[in-house]
Amino acid sequence: MTALLTAPSPERRAVLSRRIRLFAAATITYNLIEAVVALWAGGAADSSALIGFGLDSVIEVSSALALSWQFSAKDPERREHLTLRIIAVSFFALAAFVTTDAVRALTGGDEPRHSTPGIVIAALSLAIMPVLSWAQRRAGRELGSRTAVADSKQTLLCTYLSAVLLVGLVLNSALGWWWADAGAALVIAGIAVREGINAWRGESCCGGCAPDSKSTPVVVALGTKPVDRRPLA
After folding, report:
1. Regarding beta strands 218-221 and 2-5, do their DSSP bridges make them parallel or antiparallel, or are they unpaired?
2. Helix 10-45 crosses helix 116-143 at what angle (to 10 degrees)?
3. What is the pLDDT of residues 113-158, one digit of tens each?
């Protein structure tokens, strides 16, 4: 049995580029809704976690807009370096805000009240964001786009924040543990810094992206012995 490993054809690249633009548009739309609901619910419940979550959604929109801007060009690769910088800065901004908000909460901020809308939006994000991130990352890796993969990690980070928010809101409502989400948010901030550094260095593919420059097909025979694995002329 043989496997043909090759870079995407121009037609396939066009399909993947359109798909990535659609994913970015879906991310923008959902995060705008998420931001409005979270900020409104956070204000009503005096919840710094919910307000922080809503502002995080605004930051994620900036990342998705940067990706849309890149793939609106005829040659998206020419804009990749700048787009990676924008995504990296959005990670750093997110980490800075989450850290500041968590420290403020731990050092005497207002204790949040129960918020049913907050729990609902956190649960929805926890269900939607992993699927959207996976689809975008898969398309980005096939296309060989570091920016698409970096933005998919931003979306995946929203999943972690959603989990932290949901646990914090539930523990606060059930047990009065107002500090639970603040401590976990500091861990999320560390993850955001790491992903920001990777995006800044252009390491967002994590070895999973196909290099754009390799357009020559490579045929590999798959067998059970080392001698069976050889390129075919």
Report:
1. antiparallel
2. 160
3. 788 888 999 899 899 888 888 888 888 888 887 777 877 877 787 7
| 49 close to 42: Cβ distance less than 8 angstroms | yes
Q: 86-102 pLDDT, tens per residue? A: 878 887 887 888 788 77
